[in-house]
Amino acid sequence: MATATSTNGNAKTAASNKATTDDLEAQIAALKADVAALTGTLKDMGIQKGVSLKSSAKDSAEALRKRGEDTAADLKKSAQHYYATAESQVRENPAAAIGIAAGVGFLVGLIMNRR
Predict the structure, then answer these.
(1) What is the count of structural domains for the chain?
(2) Residue 115: which H helix or E strand, with range?
(3) Residue 80's domain spans which residues?
(4) For 79-92, what is each residue's pLDDT tens digit?
(5) Helices marked H in the chain — which ranges?
(6) How far does Cα 15 stand from its chain's mean position?
């Protein structure tokens, strides 16, 4: 009789272990599915963020290009103004212009000789 009880107890334990193993396998499969879903979500988020950053960078580059063009146009206008002013001063006072040019050339020559 003792033998029958121990055999019956082992069968219950084996069935319990089988149920526990099946539960663990089901939980592992569910975890794998959850990890796959999370991976897909992270991938989609990464793609969306990349598109957003690319668009933002493109907009910033366009704004900087426009600002650079505006600055270049302003500098060109200023240079033309100063050139016209200098030209009119030279036409009005040619002797002074030659004297100033000679003085500046002399100073530059002195500075270059010291090096």
Answers:
(1) 1
(2) none
(3) 2-114
(4) 999 999 999 988 99
(5) 2-92, 94-114
(6) 59
